[in-house]
Write a structure and sequence with these properties.
about 280 residues, alpha/beta, TIM Barrel, 8-stranded parallel barrel, two-stranded antiparallel ribbon
Length: about 280
């Protein structure tokens, strides 16, 4: 199982590997820079070499990059859209240097200008970034929770983006369980989870699924809120995760936990819960 959590790069980007291995994980997710600002420093060549060597020496199977929070690929505001494209392009370049295959990105909000406009802005952003940075690192589009003005909460919307990006060989998908449940896709039983997976396969194709974010939901199905909960303690519950973890097209993918860290549970407890449900 390629199980991981989101870890910090504080101190040095290679220390993220140490933090993942301290939890006995062979996969993990990082921001390659400050996720709450537009500015960033270039990667030092020494840091790139150390990171890549340590990935090999520590037998890390997959490292996933997550885009910073500020970019909005769906934005109708030209300045924000241009800055978002620049950020996406820079992450594709940074990750290629680090040997990271996947850049997971939130798709964003059309800010009331309509779904069609939002979709076209995402397509433009992907086309621009992929053209600007011609390497093998992929853009991984993450399904959204269905919050007002969200783009990408429905599988049909994700498929539309995929079909209209010029080089969609470098487009893949991240399935976030909490987001899907919040957007109305039932995962609360083995049967409903299987139905949702089959729906994804029919509309998009499981061969294009590259990463899974494992998060329970604090809200009920279709609530439209991105509120992550500990595995098995939310409205999705244990049975749905059992089905997801046993599915042949999912169980060997990078599985990244983005669950809370609070007084009741942390990463260790959620990791052990996933292992117990995967048996």
């Amino acid at each position: 199982m390629k199980l991981g959590v989101h870890v910090s790069i504080s101190g040095s980007i290679d220390l993220s590997i140490d933090r993942a291995r301290s939890l006995d994980l062979n996969s993990f997710q990082i921001f390659t820079r400050n996720p709450r600002g537009w500015k960033y420093s270039d990667l030092k060549e020494s840091d790139i070499i150390t990171f890549k060597n340590k990935v090999i020496s520590e037998n890390i199977s997959d490292v996933i990059c997550h885009m910073p929070y500020l970019p909005n690929l769906s934005s109708p505001k030209d300045e924000v859209h241009a800055m978002s494209i620049k950020t996406l392009s820079s992450e594709l370049d940074r990750c290629n240097k680090l040997g990271i295959k996947y850049v997971v990105t939130h798709i964003g909000s059309h800010l009331g200008t309509g779904l069609e406009n939002g979709l076209e802005r995402v397509i433009k952003a992907c086309n621009s970034a992929l053209s600007d940075v011609p390497n093998e690192t992929m853009i991984i589009l993450e399904n959204t929770a269905g919050t007002k003005n969200n783009v990408g909460s429905k599988f049909e919307e994700l498929k539309y983006i995929f079909d209209n990006v010029k080089d969609n060989s470098r487009i893949g998908f991240c399935f976030d369980t909490c987001h899907a449940f919040a957007a109305g896709y039932d995962l609360s039983s083995r049967k409903s989870a299987l139905n949702t997976i089959q729906t994804f396969d029919k509309i998009i194709g499981l061969k294009h699924l590259k990463v899974v974010h494992l998060n329970d939901s604090k809200g009920e199905i279709g609530n439209g809120l991105d509120r992550h909960q500990h595995i098995g303690k939310g409205y999705i519950g244990e049975d749905g995760f059992r089905e997801i973890l046993k599915h042949r097209a999912i169980k060997n993918l990078p599985l990244i936990l983005e669950t809370p860290i609070d007084e009741s549970s942390g990463d260790e407890e959620n990791i052990q819960k996933i292992y117990s449900l995967a048996i």
